[in-house]
What does this fold into?
Amino acid sequence: MLPGPERENVNHGGKVIMPPSALDKLTRLHITYPMLFELINGAKDKLTHAGVLEFIAEEGRIYLPYWMMQTLLLEPGDLLQVMSTDLPSASFVKLQAQSTNFLDISDPKAVLENAFRNFSCLTKGDIFTFAYNDQTYEMAVLETRPGTGKNGAISVIETDLEVDFATPVGYEEPKRVSGTSTPRSGAGGLPSGGMMHSAGTMAQAINYASIAPQSNTAAAGAKAVSSHFLSEGHKLKGSRAPTPKASTPVAGASTNPPQPAVARPRTNGPQPLRLPPGKLFFGYEIKPVKKKGGEEDKENEDTKPHFQGQGQTLRAGAKKRPTAGGGEPGGKGKGKDVDDKSASDGQKPGGGRTLRDTPKQ
It folds into this structure.
Protein backbone atom coordinates (compact mmCIF):
# COMPACT_ATOMS: atom_id res chain seq x y z
CA MET A 1 0.00 0.00 0.00
CA LEU A 2 3.07 2.23 -0.15
CA PRO A 3 2.54 4.93 -2.79
CA GLY A 4 4.78 4.78 -5.85
CA PRO A 5 6.15 1.80 -7.80
CA GLU A 6 6.25 -1.60 -6.18
CA ARG A 7 9.50 -2.33 -4.35
CA GLU A 8 10.29 -6.02 -4.07
CA ASN A 9 12.88 -5.64 -1.34
CA VAL A 10 10.26 -3.99 0.89
CA ASN A 11 7.58 -6.64 0.48
CA HIS A 12 10.04 -9.61 0.71
CA GLY A 13 12.27 -8.37 3.53
CA GLY A 14 12.39 -7.80 7.27
CA LYS A 15 12.43 -4.00 7.43
CA VAL A 16 9.66 -1.40 7.89
CA ILE A 17 9.18 2.19 6.76
CA MET A 18 8.45 4.73 9.54
CA PRO A 19 7.55 8.46 9.60
CA PRO A 20 10.27 11.17 10.01
CA SER A 21 9.01 12.04 13.48
CA ALA A 22 10.13 8.61 14.69
CA LEU A 23 13.70 9.40 13.59
CA ASP A 24 13.71 12.67 15.57
CA LYS A 25 12.54 10.96 18.70
CA LEU A 26 15.04 8.09 18.32
CA THR A 27 17.99 10.45 17.96
CA ARG A 28 17.06 12.15 21.22
CA LEU A 29 16.89 8.82 23.05
CA HIS A 30 20.50 7.90 22.22
CA ILE A 31 19.66 4.33 21.19
CA THR A 32 22.19 1.73 20.03
CA TYR A 33 22.76 0.98 16.37
CA PRO A 34 21.72 -0.75 14.21
CA MET A 35 18.12 0.27 14.93
CA LEU A 36 16.04 -2.80 15.77
CA PHE A 37 12.39 -2.70 16.85
CA GLU A 38 9.89 -4.95 18.57
CA LEU A 39 6.45 -4.89 16.93
CA ILE A 40 3.54 -5.84 19.20
CA ASN A 41 -0.11 -6.39 18.29
CA GLY A 42 -1.75 -6.14 21.72
CA ALA A 43 -5.19 -7.05 20.42
CA LYS A 44 -4.04 -10.44 19.12
CA ASP A 45 -1.10 -10.91 21.52
CA LYS A 46 1.34 -11.32 18.61
CA LEU A 47 4.85 -10.05 18.44
CA THR A 48 7.82 -10.01 16.05
CA HIS A 49 10.98 -8.01 15.36
CA ALA A 50 12.09 -5.89 12.42
CA GLY A 51 14.62 -3.32 11.25
CA VAL A 52 13.98 0.04 9.62
CA LEU A 53 14.52 0.80 5.94
CA GLU A 54 13.53 4.45 5.57
CA PHE A 55 11.77 7.29 7.42
CA ILE A 56 9.51 8.51 4.60
CA ALA A 57 6.07 7.33 5.69
CA GLU A 58 3.18 9.68 6.43
CA GLU A 59 2.78 10.78 10.02
CA GLY A 60 0.92 8.25 12.07
CA ARG A 61 1.55 5.39 9.60
CA ILE A 62 4.01 2.52 9.34
CA TYR A 63 4.48 0.24 6.34
CA LEU A 64 5.18 -3.46 6.94
CA PRO A 65 5.87 -6.36 4.59
CA TYR A 66 2.83 -8.49 3.82
CA TRP A 67 4.25 -11.62 5.53
CA MET A 68 4.82 -9.57 8.72
CA MET A 69 1.20 -8.42 8.74
CA GLN A 70 0.12 -12.05 8.45
CA THR A 71 2.38 -13.02 11.36
CA LEU A 72 0.91 -10.25 13.57
CA LEU A 73 -2.64 -10.86 12.32
CA LEU A 74 -2.93 -7.23 11.29
CA GLU A 75 -5.30 -5.52 8.88
CA PRO A 76 -4.67 -2.17 7.22
CA GLY A 77 -5.51 0.58 9.75
CA ASP A 78 -4.96 -1.49 12.93
CA LEU A 79 -2.96 -0.10 15.84
CA LEU A 80 0.61 -1.33 16.31
CA GLN A 81 3.03 -0.74 19.17
CA VAL A 82 6.68 -0.14 18.20
CA MET A 83 9.51 -0.37 20.75
CA SER A 84 13.25 0.01 20.30
CA THR A 85 15.26 -3.07 21.34
CA ASP A 86 18.72 -4.59 21.26
CA LEU A 87 19.27 -8.19 19.96
CA PRO A 88 22.33 -10.48 20.11
CA SER A 89 24.18 -11.49 16.95
CA ALA A 90 23.02 -14.81 15.54
CA SER A 91 25.24 -17.88 15.38
CA PHE A 92 22.76 -20.57 14.29
CA VAL A 93 19.32 -20.74 12.71
CA LYS A 94 17.23 -23.68 11.54
CA LEU A 95 14.82 -23.10 8.67
CA GLN A 96 12.06 -25.13 7.06
CA ALA A 97 10.76 -24.53 3.56
CA GLN A 98 6.97 -24.48 3.32
CA SER A 99 6.97 -26.07 -0.14
CA THR A 100 8.98 -28.66 -1.99
CA ASN A 101 9.65 -26.11 -4.73
CA PHE A 102 12.60 -24.94 -2.64
CA LEU A 103 14.40 -28.17 -3.58
CA ASP A 104 14.48 -27.04 -7.21
CA ILE A 105 16.94 -24.25 -6.37
CA SER A 106 20.40 -25.36 -7.48
CA ASP A 107 22.35 -23.19 -5.00
CA PRO A 108 20.18 -22.48 -1.91
CA LYS A 109 23.13 -21.06 0.05
CA ALA A 110 23.73 -18.24 -2.42
CA VAL A 111 20.01 -17.53 -2.71
CA LEU A 112 19.53 -17.24 1.05
CA GLU A 113 22.64 -15.08 1.45
CA ASN A 114 21.16 -12.66 -1.08
CA ALA A 115 17.74 -12.78 0.60
CA PHE A 116 19.15 -12.07 4.09
CA ARG A 117 20.49 -8.72 2.88
CA ASN A 118 16.93 -7.40 3.22
CA PHE A 119 16.64 -8.64 6.82
CA SER A 120 17.97 -7.16 10.05
CA CYS A 121 16.66 -9.75 12.52
CA LEU A 122 14.74 -13.03 12.76
CA THR A 123 12.22 -14.23 15.31
CA LYS A 124 11.52 -17.83 16.20
CA GLY A 125 8.14 -18.90 14.82
CA ASP A 126 8.03 -16.35 11.96
CA ILE A 127 7.32 -17.41 8.38
CA PHE A 128 9.06 -14.92 6.10
CA THR A 129 9.11 -14.80 2.31
CA PHE A 130 11.74 -14.08 -0.33
CA ALA A 131 11.59 -13.89 -4.11
CA TYR A 132 13.84 -15.77 -6.51
CA ASN A 133 13.52 -16.37 -10.24
CA ASP A 134 10.01 -14.82 -10.44
CA GLN A 135 8.75 -17.10 -7.69
CA THR A 136 7.97 -16.49 -4.02
CA TYR A 137 9.21 -18.94 -1.37
CA GLU A 138 8.08 -19.18 2.25
CA MET A 139 10.50 -20.13 5.02
CA ALA A 140 9.72 -20.84 8.68
CA VAL A 141 12.17 -20.11 11.49
CA LEU A 142 12.24 -23.21 13.73
CA GLU A 143 15.25 -22.56 15.98
CA THR A 144 17.68 -19.73 16.75
CA ARG A 145 20.90 -19.44 18.76
CA PRO A 146 21.46 -17.56 20.97
CA GLY A 147 17.83 -16.63 21.48
CA THR A 148 16.59 -14.09 23.99
CA GLY A 149 13.30 -14.70 25.77
CA LYS A 150 10.57 -16.98 24.57
CA ASN A 151 10.57 -15.47 21.08
CA GLY A 152 14.23 -16.26 20.35
CA ALA A 153 14.95 -13.08 18.36
CA ILE A 154 18.41 -12.67 16.85
CA SER A 155 20.25 -10.10 14.74
CA VAL A 156 21.62 -11.20 11.35
CA ILE A 157 23.67 -8.05 10.59
CA GLU A 158 27.43 -8.57 10.07
CA THR A 159 27.63 -12.04 11.60
CA ASP A 160 28.71 -15.55 10.62
CA LEU A 161 25.48 -17.50 10.57
CA GLU A 162 25.25 -21.29 10.46
CA VAL A 163 22.08 -22.41 8.68
CA ASP A 164 20.43 -25.81 8.96
CA PHE A 165 17.43 -27.03 6.97
CA ALA A 166 14.57 -29.22 8.10
CA THR A 167 12.60 -31.43 5.74
CA PRO A 168 10.35 -29.27 3.57
CA VAL A 169 6.62 -29.43 4.19
CA GLY A 170 5.00 -32.04 1.93
CA TYR A 171 8.25 -33.83 1.09
CA GLU A 172 8.12 -37.63 0.95
CA GLU A 173 11.08 -39.95 0.89
CA PRO A 174 11.35 -41.89 -2.40
CA LYS A 175 10.34 -45.50 -2.03
CA ARG A 176 13.14 -47.94 -2.55
CA VAL A 177 12.43 -50.59 -5.14
CA SER A 178 13.82 -54.04 -4.42
CA GLY A 179 16.38 -55.33 -6.89
CA THR A 180 14.67 -58.74 -7.20
CA SER A 181 11.33 -59.06 -8.91
CA THR A 182 8.50 -60.36 -6.75
CA PRO A 183 6.00 -62.88 -8.06
CA ARG A 184 2.73 -61.36 -9.16
CA SER A 185 -0.70 -62.85 -8.97
CA GLY A 186 -2.10 -64.60 -12.01
CA ALA A 187 -5.11 -62.28 -12.13
CA GLY A 188 -3.33 -59.92 -14.50
CA GLY A 189 -2.38 -62.70 -16.91
CA LEU A 190 1.38 -62.23 -16.40
CA PRO A 191 3.72 -65.05 -15.43
CA SER A 192 5.50 -65.00 -12.10
CA GLY A 193 8.62 -62.88 -12.13
CA GLY A 194 7.27 -60.26 -14.58
CA MET A 195 6.89 -59.99 -18.33
CA MET A 196 9.00 -62.38 -20.44
CA HIS A 197 10.47 -61.36 -23.78
CA SER A 198 9.19 -63.08 -26.91
CA ALA A 199 12.72 -64.32 -27.69
CA GLY A 200 13.07 -65.94 -24.29
CA THR A 201 15.37 -64.96 -21.49
CA MET A 202 18.33 -62.65 -21.92
CA ALA A 203 20.72 -65.61 -21.80
CA GLN A 204 18.92 -67.17 -24.72
CA ALA A 205 18.80 -63.92 -26.67
CA ILE A 206 22.58 -63.41 -26.52
CA ASN A 207 23.43 -67.13 -26.75
CA TYR A 208 25.16 -67.05 -23.40
CA ALA A 209 25.75 -70.81 -23.43
CA SER A 210 28.37 -70.44 -26.17
CA ILE A 211 30.25 -67.45 -24.77
CA ALA A 212 30.21 -68.34 -21.09
CA PRO A 213 33.68 -68.90 -19.58
CA GLN A 214 32.79 -72.46 -18.55
CA SER A 215 31.39 -73.34 -21.96
CA ASN A 216 33.26 -75.87 -24.08
CA THR A 217 31.46 -75.00 -27.30
CA ALA A 218 33.05 -71.56 -27.67
CA ALA A 219 35.94 -72.85 -29.77
CA ALA A 220 33.60 -74.73 -32.06
CA GLY A 221 31.42 -71.68 -32.40
CA ALA A 222 34.38 -69.46 -33.29
CA LYS A 223 35.52 -72.00 -35.86
CA ALA A 224 32.06 -72.10 -37.37
CA VAL A 225 31.94 -68.33 -37.66
CA SER A 226 35.40 -68.09 -39.24
CA SER A 227 34.62 -70.72 -41.90
CA HIS A 228 33.57 -69.39 -45.31
CA PHE A 229 31.89 -72.61 -46.46
CA LEU A 230 29.32 -74.00 -44.08
CA SER A 231 27.00 -75.94 -46.40
CA GLU A 232 27.46 -79.46 -47.67
CA GLY A 233 29.07 -80.28 -51.03
CA HIS A 234 27.14 -81.50 -54.07
CA LYS A 235 28.37 -83.45 -57.08
CA LEU A 236 28.12 -81.90 -60.53
CA LYS A 237 27.39 -85.24 -62.20
CA GLY A 238 24.68 -86.58 -60.06
CA SER A 239 21.44 -88.37 -60.65
CA ARG A 240 18.82 -86.20 -62.23
CA ALA A 241 15.90 -85.21 -60.16
CA PRO A 242 12.72 -87.06 -61.07
CA THR A 243 10.32 -85.23 -63.34
CA PRO A 244 7.42 -83.91 -61.30
CA LYS A 245 4.16 -85.61 -62.06
CA ALA A 246 1.02 -83.74 -62.82
CA SER A 247 -1.32 -83.52 -59.90
CA THR A 248 -4.76 -82.23 -59.41
CA PRO A 249 -4.77 -78.88 -57.57
CA VAL A 250 -6.43 -78.94 -54.21
CA ALA A 251 -7.99 -75.86 -52.70
CA GLY A 252 -5.94 -74.47 -49.84
CA ALA A 253 -2.85 -76.55 -50.65
CA SER A 254 0.30 -75.44 -52.47
CA THR A 255 1.35 -77.27 -55.66
CA ASN A 256 5.05 -76.44 -55.17
CA PRO A 257 7.20 -79.23 -53.76
CA PRO A 258 8.43 -78.67 -50.18
CA GLN A 259 11.81 -76.99 -50.06
CA PRO A 260 14.48 -78.58 -47.89
CA ALA A 261 15.44 -76.62 -44.84
CA VAL A 262 18.64 -74.69 -45.31
CA ALA A 263 21.02 -74.88 -42.41
CA ARG A 264 21.73 -71.43 -41.07
CA PRO A 265 25.29 -70.61 -40.11
CA ARG A 266 26.02 -70.46 -36.45
CA THR A 267 26.60 -67.00 -35.06
CA ASN A 268 28.40 -67.88 -31.89
CA GLY A 269 30.48 -65.18 -30.27
CA PRO A 270 34.28 -65.11 -30.13
CA GLN A 271 36.15 -67.40 -27.84
CA PRO A 272 36.65 -65.77 -24.41
CA LEU A 273 40.14 -64.82 -23.30
CA ARG A 274 41.21 -67.00 -20.38
CA LEU A 275 44.21 -65.81 -18.40
CA PRO A 276 45.79 -67.31 -15.29
CA PRO A 277 45.49 -65.39 -12.04
CA GLY A 278 47.81 -62.41 -11.75
CA LYS A 279 48.32 -62.02 -15.52
CA LEU A 280 47.15 -59.00 -17.51
CA PHE A 281 46.48 -58.74 -21.25
CA PHE A 282 47.71 -55.58 -23.00
CA GLY A 283 47.18 -56.57 -26.64
CA TYR A 284 48.78 -58.80 -29.21
CA GLU A 285 52.35 -58.71 -30.45
CA ILE A 286 52.94 -56.27 -33.30
CA LYS A 287 54.50 -57.91 -36.36
CA PRO A 288 55.85 -55.53 -39.03
CA VAL A 289 54.48 -55.95 -42.54
CA LYS A 290 56.90 -57.47 -45.03
CA LYS A 291 57.88 -55.06 -47.79
CA LYS A 292 58.17 -55.91 -51.48
CA GLY A 293 61.52 -56.77 -53.12
CA GLY A 294 61.77 -53.50 -55.06
CA GLU A 295 61.33 -51.45 -51.93
CA GLU A 296 63.97 -53.47 -50.08
CA ASP A 297 66.51 -53.01 -52.92
CA LYS A 298 65.80 -49.31 -52.96
CA GLU A 299 66.38 -49.06 -49.26
CA ASN A 300 69.64 -51.05 -49.59
CA GLU A 301 70.87 -48.67 -52.28
CA ASP A 302 70.01 -45.71 -50.10
CA THR A 303 71.99 -47.15 -47.22
CA LYS A 304 75.11 -47.93 -49.32
CA PRO A 305 77.85 -45.27 -49.42
CA HIS A 306 78.01 -43.32 -52.67
CA PHE A 307 81.86 -42.95 -52.82
CA GLN A 308 84.32 -45.80 -52.33
CA GLY A 309 88.03 -46.36 -53.14
CA GLN A 310 91.20 -44.32 -52.85
CA GLY A 311 91.76 -40.91 -54.33
CA GLN A 312 94.18 -40.36 -57.21
CA THR A 313 95.86 -37.21 -58.46
CA LEU A 314 95.56 -36.10 -62.06
CA ARG A 315 99.30 -35.31 -62.35
CA ALA A 316 101.13 -38.57 -61.79
CA GLY A 317 104.80 -39.38 -62.53
CA ALA A 318 105.43 -40.87 -66.02
CA LYS A 319 106.24 -44.56 -65.96
CA LYS A 320 109.46 -45.83 -67.65
CA ARG A 321 108.93 -47.73 -70.89
CA PRO A 322 110.22 -51.34 -70.81
CA THR A 323 112.89 -52.55 -73.24
CA ALA A 324 112.28 -55.20 -75.89
CA GLY A 325 114.45 -57.70 -74.12
CA GLY A 326 112.79 -57.21 -70.84
CA GLY A 327 116.13 -56.20 -69.29
CA GLU A 328 117.49 -52.99 -68.04
CA PRO A 329 118.22 -50.15 -70.42
CA GLY A 330 121.77 -49.91 -71.73
CA GLY A 331 121.89 -53.31 -73.45
CA LYS A 332 122.50 -55.59 -70.55
CA GLY A 333 121.09 -59.06 -70.90
CA LYS A 334 120.39 -58.78 -74.64
CA GLY A 335 122.08 -61.97 -75.83
CA LYS A 336 120.48 -64.19 -73.28
CA ASP A 337 116.94 -63.08 -74.13
CA VAL A 338 117.46 -63.52 -77.83
CA ASP A 339 119.02 -66.96 -77.42
CA ASP A 340 116.12 -68.15 -75.36
CA LYS A 341 113.67 -66.93 -77.94
CA SER A 342 115.52 -68.51 -80.80
CA ALA A 343 115.75 -71.81 -79.04
CA SER A 344 112.09 -71.81 -78.40
CA ASP A 345 111.34 -71.05 -82.06
CA GLY A 346 113.60 -73.84 -83.30
CA GLN A 347 116.08 -71.54 -85.00
CA LYS A 348 119.77 -71.13 -84.66
CA PRO A 349 120.95 -68.90 -81.98
CA GLY A 350 122.46 -65.68 -83.12
CA GLY A 351 123.22 -62.28 -81.93
CA GLY A 352 120.33 -59.96 -81.60
CA ARG A 353 120.09 -56.24 -81.54
CA THR A 354 117.64 -53.85 -80.11
CA LEU A 355 115.61 -51.59 -82.31
CA ARG A 356 117.43 -48.59 -81.00
CA ASP A 357 120.82 -49.96 -82.05
CA THR A 358 119.75 -50.88 -85.63
CA PRO A 359 121.68 -48.67 -88.05
CA LYS A 360 119.75 -46.77 -90.63
CA GLN A 361 120.12 -47.89 -94.30
